[in-house]
From TrEMBL:
InterPro entries: Cation-dep_OMT (IPR050362), SAM-dependent_MTases_sf (IPR029063), SAM_O-MeTrfase (IPR002935). It comes from the Eukaryota. Gene3D superfamilies: Vaccinia Virus protein VP39. Belongs to the class I-like SAM-binding methyltransferase superfamily. Cation-dependent O-methyltransferase family. Its EC number is 2.1.1.104. Pathway: Aromatic compound metabolism; phenylpropanoid biosynthesis. SUPFAM superfamilies: S-adenosyl-L-methionine-dependent methyltransferases (SSF53335). One of its GO terms (biological process) is methylation. This is caffeoyl-CoA O-methyltransferase. Pfam families: Methyltransf_3.
Length: 146
């Protein structure tokens, strides 16, 4: 019988985040399909990119990491995700603050808000992807790799 060869690469500095979901992963019998890398995402992605057979081999990527580096993740994912693949960025509405006047935004929200606003503008102008901003939860932006 044909078995789907799907593999998942999960990158996080905090192994506890992965282990929290491990009982469910084991129950679903997919632990063997997940490669957890405990590392900063940028260095892990650089290492993955150093293996040339990885370029253009990803079908899907979900990015929910430090907002300051979203554009750096995007550039790396464009090399990894194949044409026709999908990249999804989480928190692109940043609690709705991206649409608020600056004076209405709480101070704690302002630094990441500005990075998200800049990233959203960058994605809107990026001709390498077609985007759809989905107002679910804290906002996700779906990018179709062209």
């Amino acid at each position: 019988m044909y078995e789907n060869i799907m593999q998942i690469i999960a990158i996080d500095l905090d192994r506890d985040a992965y282990e929290m979901g491990l009982p469910i992963i084991k129950k679903a019998n997919i632990e063997h399909k997940i490669n957890f890398i405990q590392s900063s995402a940028l260095s892990a992605l650089d290492e993955i990119l150093n293996k040339n057979d990885n370029r253009g081999s990803f079908d899907f990527a979900f990015i929910d990491a430090d907002k300051v580096s979203y554009q750096k993740y995007h550039e790396r994912m464009l090399e990894l995700v194949k044409v026709g693949g999908i990249m999804v960025y989480d928190n692109t509405l940043w609690f709705g603050t991206v649409a608020m006047p600056e004076e209405c935004v709480k101070e704690i929200m302002k630094p990441n808000r500005q990075h998200i606003i800049e990233f959203n503008k960058f994605l809107a102008a990026d001709t390498r992807v077609q985007i759809s901003l989905v107002p679910i939860g804290d906002g996700i932006t779906i990018c179709w790799r062209l």
